[in-house]
Amino acid sequence: MLAEIITIGDEILIGQIIDTNSAFMGKELNKIGVDVYQITSIKDDKQHILNALEEASKRVDVVLITGGLGPTKDDITKHTICEYFKDTLVQNKQVLVHIEKLFEKYISTPISEINKQQALVPSTCTVLMNQHGTAPGMWLEKENTVFISMPGVPYEMKGLMKNEVLPRIQNRFDRPYILHKTILTYGMGESAIAEKIENWEDNLPAYIKLAYLPNLGNVRLRLSARGRDNKILEDTIEREVIKLKEIIGDVIVGYEEDQTIEVRIGELLTKKGKTLSVAESCTGGKIAESFITNAGASSYFMGGIVAYATQSKIDVLGVDPKVIKLYTVTSEEVAKAMALKAKEKFGSDYAISTTGNAGPSKGDGDVEAGTIFIGIATPTTVFSKKYIFGNLREQNIGRAVNKSLELLLGELL
Amino acid sequence: MLAEIITIGDEILIGQIIDTNSAFMGKELNKIGVDVYQITSIKDDKQHILNALEEASKRVDVVLITGGLGPTKDDITKHTICEYFKDTLVQNKQVLVHIEKLFEKYISTPISEINKQQALVPSTCTVLMNQHGTAPGMWLEKENTVFISMPGVPYEMKGLMKNEVLPRIQNRFDRPYILHKTILTYGMGESAIAEKIENWEDNLPAYIKLAYLPNLGNVRLRLSARGRDNKILEDTIEREVIKLKEIIGDVIVGYEEDQTIEVRIGELLTKKGKTLSVAESCTGGKIAESFITNAGASSYFMGGIVAYATQSKIDVLGVDPKVIKLYTVTSEEVAKAMALKAKEKFGSDYAISTTGNAGPSKGDGDVEAGTIFIGIATPTTVFSKKYIFGNLREQNIGRAVNKSLELLLGELL
Q: Which CATH number is correct for B2-172, 3.40.980.10, 3.40.47.10, 1.10.10.10, 3.30.365.10?
């Protein structure tokens, strides 16, 4: 049971947008046992689309196509699919009524001819209603290959996937189980881990695959199992993880199924009835944002202060200027003071702070680019740690965010 | 002059990571006149890699490959490329010395056999030194197609692209000029714009292509010109934009070359010698973060308060609880008070604030999910605007960030 994702649109190829749709589709398909074999991103070009459809049909059982369904001239996917299926476009009443309703509710301008054309679909297709937009999804079949076309607008595609595409694929195809378990390690390099676990890795059952995913200072080990019996997969993965813990248990900091570290922190805080606040300098709001992105954050996340300028650490956060003078603004002492002040201001139980220089050049402080201090305040204590990263700004910010979440998680466990 | 990007790694196909590398490469290649024809993401599977290389060689002049160069067993790219070129691996002294240096400087553990194997490269390849990691880049040629293999770790790939790959491609190939100009519009739908500019669009020269890029409440129009004479391209684009302004000038809010709206705001603030702070509720630090991501933010960005819980709007930000009681926490008045308080606390000239309910369910306030108020304080005034988005959380947060930046940009222009 193989799938291919084809994303259509010049904006992806010239790097104007990052293709986040494919990752979403890959993850959702994987959950229901569909193996994504290839992702192909191509231009808004008729011949190129026709070639890609034909090649994909030889490789896989299901082809998911996104993009090129807008109402404007540069959107040619629908006409090209229609040509590929040697079909003609016909007006779909249900879609037309839906478009009229959307215009009535959200759009003040009258509905135009261009908008009405969004209700045209290939005559042999099954229409998949798009709750969030005017372009419908389309389901077509040719010689045992299913082709599904969806708009490229992420929330429209996501709605269609959840409400229409995934349930229909589950109905239509017999699928194996696919299980992943990701083990988070911290403090040991990829190759050092590989050497330590070589023997274990060589003895894994054939239906379990191991991948190393190094990322900003830590290595994740992903076990993927595939088979017909879910129970066997679960048991085997559990057994292998126990064996692995015996070998490198000292560097394993957690597990990740489909859960980010901030979601895990949120769950732990909610369970304990505790709250969190943050005081960020060099990470500039990224830690706060990583929590607030998740619905339900309001039950544990109180807020944060982005004290970017040194003066704002004094005026807004309330750090004692003497501490800054004595130790400099990028120091363990200031990181600790920031965490304590955030805790105090927001009346939270825990607090995270960051201060440092994300690079690439020297800032307010006197430390080298890439030097970052992270402070953690808990109900009973406060501490801070110093990290020296490289001189790549984005990278350093990401690393500092990851490290701070890891440190807090460590305290909560 | 066509290129194809092949990214190798199961983690992309199962959606564990989002492929940001391709967007970076696409953008950089485009800048030097290389047209990315296709992006193909495939598994760590020997036959699949061999097929992808062979197919790409028929389509394009340059194939850029990322991923699968790590030191562990799941990384098979190097051996597979070697097989494709019917070559053998030999040890490269320069790479070995580089690996030894990296270990000496950054890694406490002794260098192992696995690490040393990173210095093995196909005998016929040109080695591209990787400043940020142990796996070198490799440049190989076969029947007039160039194959370039790079690690998948983003900052390693970026370093290699900038220092080695792009200069070599510029040397090796004769390329046309490619120019893009993106026009930002606000307040009119995609189809309404299309109808208004239909005649203009139909009369564009053949070497200019128009694309519509709708995104969270605004539509960007991208003009792409390709040709041998840079001057002609520039002049024609300028002329066409003037014509376009005559038709839809009232909804054009700006232009984007390779610049985000926050970079533009930063430049304008720096030029005026003015500063900015933010007070965020539902956007949770995302506005602050969008500024701080850019180096140099410290010259204009003072900081921000993420006042997520209602109580923190009073305790930390200092909003008068009477105002909250009288108008509710999600109201124009509270948005204005938040912006003014941020301006006061941080001593900045401008301030942005957000308060609302990002959804999907009702929060502290009493407004429907998707209702967001944005406040803007300037040196002389303060105002706020109400927006009603949908019920998709991520989407609403993104829209609120975009709108707030647009509103501030409007004030600065």
A: 3.40.980.10
